Amino acid sequence: MKRPIKLMVSCGSGIATSTHAASIVQEYMNEHGIPVSIMTCSVNDLANRLTGCDVILSTAQVAFDPGIPVFDGLPLLTGVGEEELLEDLQKTIQEITEKD
């Protein structure tokens, strides 16, 4: 069995919005049989929490280049473009999994 992809979900405070976005992503990935390990944090703590992470999803602007894929999580809050975001995230996760 392949290792779960580590996904960091961040928002302004690292509490409500990131938790909401993380639950949507977790449910979607579970439905599609894709193992992910999801953690949440504030965007200010992001740089210090990336060790071992494969992908970032953030509802706030990431002001630095983390060297891993970064997804804009706003569609998970508005519903506009949510399905496309989840499909793109799934595709990226599968590509990372295939490289490992």
Automatic annotation (TrEMBL):
Its EC number is 2.7.1.-. The keyword Lipid metabolism does not apply. Keywords: Signal, Sugar transport, Transferase, Transport. Residues 5-97 form the PTS EIIB type-2 domain. The keyword Transferase applies. One of its GO terms (molecular function) is transferase activity. Residues 1-21 form the signal peptide. It is an enzyme of class 2 (transferase). InterPro entries: PTS_EIIB-like_sf, PTS_EIIB_2, PTS_EIIB_2/3. PROSITE patterns: PTS_EIIB_TYPE_2. This is PTS sugar transporter subunit IIB.
